[in-house]
Recover the amino acids of this structure.
């Protein structure tokens, strides 16, 4: 008996089934403009197959975290873990056969891409004994497999294209069935799209996307106009797991997720013009002078060890045959070295801080990856015989950010105050935040874009502009731009304002 699910109904009301076993061997491409119902389709597919097969979702917008409660998916916040921890989590996911959602909405775009690429690569490189069948869903795939170079760094683009190509081209032998969803077929790398044998094409309007969709569906180009006329939630389906000829499908309802937002009109406020003017303009200067309150601190991220139990529990809920891929013994491998007695310390914490400070002062140090910096740090400590308890990679990143931001020029009280404010600042923006806070505390001009680029480890001025926008959305700084081109940065909790 085949493992089939119903994803919707055709024009005559007959159910349209999806063969999950065939999908594992042939992969799936979903295309549809924003508002076409693409995320609804993915959710329906995930919900219906949740008890049949392990699922791994790469979620850049946080749309699928609601699968956790009704279906037992483990949500992993990509912003809460270091690259090494993300890779270790991916290996444990394959070992324990856990269904997970990698939520990336807390990261800026390039960090989302790097995190997803390292995660997918670790899934792909798992040991052969953990090659269990799994659906790997990548939403907004044009971000992770772009057809042309964009604003992201070239090494990032090569990394993510390699990971996505491995998933779609070579993942089948490792049990990984790629499901990629994109808004624009023209923006998706062709070698990634070409590996899918099943297609679900939703509404699209641009001629280049309609022509590519029609080609994939085996339709004549004059029939491509049909794709433009599709309603929300309606798709054209083709492939060995669905239908041998193009079939119109209306996707069925889902159980999880928030209620659909209503886009209709609503009555305008009935305030008189004078009252509205008073509400908008009254006491505006004093409100603008108030510092923006800091956002509440996020809940602490669970340690990777805490996720293991949840992953194991999620894996046990799968509906695969008993005994298949039990993964026994995998948990013990994850703890290799635990409990080993640490050697006697050969140095003090001041010595360790001195090593980090010396690394931060070196030209180009901030442009290296966190893993390369940490390996260099460990090598220096071994050369100096500092064999005591050394900071892990996460602690090292924060100490390196503090050292590279130049806080040593501040007095002890102000330094402690800034570090207290930075306690819940994400690691990826900690260094620029400290540099801005230090300048504000001293009443100096805001750091130039070049200085922020140095501490952030980027050579792109555009990334610094996006960085400041991202920090403002997080409530870490307030950016004020006047019409003359001047810019001032306000740090909540620091009285002085850094201007340039």
């Amino acid at each position: 008996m085949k493992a089939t699910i119903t994803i919707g109904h055709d024009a005559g009301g007959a159910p349209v089934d999806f063969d999950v076993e065939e999908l594992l061997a042939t992969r799936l491409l979903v295309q549809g403009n924003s508002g076409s119902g693409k995320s609804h389709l993915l959710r329906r597919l995930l919900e219906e197959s949740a008890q049949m097969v392990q699922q791994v979702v790469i979620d850049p917008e946080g749309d699928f975290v609601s699968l956790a409660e009704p279906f037992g998916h483990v949500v992993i916040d990509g912003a809460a873990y270091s690259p090494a921890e993300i890779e270790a989590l991916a290996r444990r996911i394959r070992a324990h056969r856990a269904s997970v959602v990698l939520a990336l909405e807390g990261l800026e775009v390039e960090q989302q891409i790097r995190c997803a690429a390292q995660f997918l690569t670790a899934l792909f490189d798992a040991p052969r004994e953990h090659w269990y069948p799994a659906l790997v869903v990548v939403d907004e795939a044009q971000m992770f497999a772009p057809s042309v170079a964009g604003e992201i760094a070239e090494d990032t683009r090569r990394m993510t294209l390699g990971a996505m190509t491995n998933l779609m081209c070579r993942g089948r032998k490792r049990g990984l069935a790629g499901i990629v969803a994109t808004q624009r077929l023209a923006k998706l790398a062709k070698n990634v799209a070409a590996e899918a044998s099943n297609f679900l094409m939703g509404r699209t309007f641009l001629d280049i996307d309609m022509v590519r969709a029609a080609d994939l569906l085996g339709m004549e180009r004059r029939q491509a106009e049909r794709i433009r006329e599709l309603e929300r939630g309606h798709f054209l389906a083709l492939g060995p797991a669905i239908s041998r000829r193009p079939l119109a499908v209306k996707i069925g309802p889902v159980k999880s997720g928030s209620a659909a937002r209503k886009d209709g009109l609503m009555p305008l406020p009935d305030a008189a013009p004078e009252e509205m003017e008073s509400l908008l303009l009254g006491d505006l200067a004093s409100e603008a002078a108030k510092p923006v309150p800091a956002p509440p601190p996020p809940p602490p991220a669970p340690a990777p060890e805490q996720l293991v139990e949840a992953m194991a529990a999620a894996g046990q809920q799968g509906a695969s045959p008993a005994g298949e891929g039990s993964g026994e013994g995998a948990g013990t491998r994850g703890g290799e070295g635990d409990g080993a007695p640490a050697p006697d310390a050969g140095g003090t914490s001041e010595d360790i801080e001195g090593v980090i400070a010396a690394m931060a002062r070196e030209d180009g140090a901030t442009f290296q990856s966190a893993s390369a910096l940490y390996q260099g740090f460990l090598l220096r400590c071994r050369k100096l015989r500092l064999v005591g308890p050394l900071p892990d990679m996460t602690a090292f990143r924060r100490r390196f950010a503090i050292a590279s931001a130049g806080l040593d020029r501040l007095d002890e009280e102000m330094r402690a105050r800034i570090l207290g404010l930075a306690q819940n600042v994400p690691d990826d923006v900690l260094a620029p935040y400290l540099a801005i806070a230090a300048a504000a505390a001293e009443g100096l001009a805001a750091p130039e874009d070049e200085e922020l680029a140095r501490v952030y480890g980027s050579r792109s001025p555009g990334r610094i502009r996006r960085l400041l926008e991202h920090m403002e959305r997080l409530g870490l700084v307030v950016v004020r731009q006047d019409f003359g081109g001047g810019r001032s940065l306000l740090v909540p909790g620091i009285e002085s304002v850094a201007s340039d």
About this structure: Confidence is low (pLDDT under 50) at residues 318-346.
